[in-house]
Design brief:
The complex is a heterodimer of chains A (148) and B (251).
Chain A: H1 21-49, H2 59-66, H3 69-97, H4 101-128
Chain B: H1 2-7, E1 18-27, E2 37-46, H2 51-62, E3 81-84, E4 87-90, E5 105-108, E6 115-117, E7 120-121, H3 124-132, H4 151-156, H5 174-178, H6 185-195, H7 203-210, H8 224-228, H9 235-248
Parallel strand pairs in B: 1-5
Antiparallel strand pairs in B: 1-2, 3-4, 3-5, 6-7
Helix pairs in contact in B: 3-6, 6-7, 6-9
The chains are: A mainly alpha (148), B alpha+beta (251).
InterPro entries (chain A): SQR/QFR_C/D, SuccDH_FuR_B_TM-su
GO cellular component, one term (chain A): membrane
Pfam families (chain A): Sdh_cyt
Chain lengths: 148, 251
């Protein structure tokens, strides 16, 4: 004998539509965190441990790296993942400690604006950087500039 | 202390040792005080006594206006959660000898809930979020006989059945302190108890409730709740399991 009885209360009425940003933010923090461990330690290892170590870092070294598509993609990933990771962390801090809606919106806005500006500027630098400025001292720029 | 030492040799073997303890209690009377203040009391305690016994001694012998909640006094009703030496504990489960008695013992109300008087807080926001997760069995079939469950299915949520709703976890959570909208560990623990119950049919409803802006994603895994729980529930683990269930879409 089976009988069905109604649920004691209607199920959760609030059916929210659209993307659950809170959930995706949480997932993003974990995913980007794991990728950043590899990216940042790889970055530090190549810059500081390989070749002649810390003394190799000068304009020519950085320019040489930024002229290589591999390091361009590496640095772009690092920039976007780290900056959004940090900004999202700051957003949760604001949510935690700022209870007034106005102040909250102001800080969130400032955070979003500065993140966008830094992302645009950083990406612009990575892809438009000129490793061989005209008239530069040949001893200061990357070795491949001589042929130009 | 001098008299206690003089009498010591005369005591029979196995007698419980007595010592004087200073309790510094955070007092607040909404009818008189604008702000809470600390007041200290000296009480003669035995090593078998608990913080609750010290509070009883103060209330019964020294200052009858001291207010605190306690019902069963045996660690199961969950009414005497308080902040003892900066950590959330049950006064009835904390032995004085386990604390450093050479220093004063600080006792105050749990944080994050509105203070009503002395050690009593308004628990309503806490129970409101508890009610919001629908903490009861939702099953469509008529309860004519017992609902059979395997040992493994029962073990799945065993840990979270231990909750006594003392609010020690929720009021130890830094997210809850600053954001009273957050469901808090206790509500998530009690949702977990039904989400992972094979007899329950509304796991998805509860997962939807907790997949909210103020739901499980606010948890910052600081483990304060796991540390505070007087029942030893692995609260942070339970919250993580609910997060996982939301991500995979099923318990």
């Amino acid at each position: 004998m089976t009988a069905t009885i109604d649920a004691p209360r209607s199920p959760y009425a609030q059916t929210k539509r659209g993307v659950n940003w809170e959930k995706w933010g949480w997932i993003y923090m974990r995913a980007s965190g794991i990728m950043l461990v590899v990216l940042i330690f790889g970055h530090l290892f190549v810059n500081l441990m390989t070749g002649t170590g810390i003394s190799q870092i000068d304009f020519g070294f950085v320019a040489g790296k930024l002229a290589d598509p591999f390091w361009q993609i590496w640095d772009t990933l690092m920039l976007w993942l780290a900056l959004i990771h940090g900004a999202n962390g700051m957003r949760t801090l604001v949510n935690d400690y700022v209870s007034r809606p106005g102040t909250r919106r102001l800080l969130h806005g400032a955070l979003a604006a500065s993140t966008v500006v830094l992302l645009v500027l950083g990406t612009l630098v990575i892809y438009t950087f000129d490793p061989c400025p005209a008239g530069a001292d040949p001893s200061l720029v990357a070795s491949f500039c001589e042929g130009l | 202390m001098a008299t206690a030492e003089a009498e010591a040799p005369a005591q029979e073997v196995g007698a419980v040792q007595a010592f004087t303890v200073t309790l510094i209690v955070r007092r607040f009377d909404p009818e008189k005080d604008a702000e809470p203040y600390w007041e200290d009391f000296d009480v003669e305690m035995y090593s078998t006594d608990r913080v609750l016994d010290a509070l009883h001694k103060i209330k019964w012998d020294q200052d009858g206006t001291l207010s605190f909640r306690r019902s069963c006094a045996h660690g199961i009703c969950g009414s005497d959660a308080m902040r003892i030496n900066g950590r959330n504990r049950l006064a009835c489960k904390t032995l004085i000898k386990d604390l450093d008695v050479t220093k004063p013992i600080y006792v105050e109300a749990i944080k994050g809930l509105p203070l009503e008087k002395d050690l009593i807080v308004d628990m309503e926001p806490f129970f409101e979020s508890y009610r919001a997760v629908q903490p009861f069995l939702i099953a469509s079939d008529k309860p004519e006989k017992e609902r059979i469950q395997t040992i493994e299915d029962r073990a799945r949520f065993d840990d979270t059945t231990k909750c006594i709703l003392c609010a020690a976890c929720t009021s130890s959570c830094p997210v809850f302190w600053t954001d009273g909208q957050y469901f808090g560990p206790a509500a998530i623990v009690n949702a977990h108890r039904f989400i992972f119950d094979s007899r329950d049919e509304a796991a998805q409803v509860r997962l939807d409730i907790l997949n909210d802006k103020e739901g499980v994603w606010r948890c910052r895994t600081t483990f304060n709740c796991s540390e505070a729980c007087p029942r030893g529930i692995e609260v942070t683990k339970a919250i993580a399991e609910v997060k996982q269930a939301i991500l995979t879409g099923r318990p």
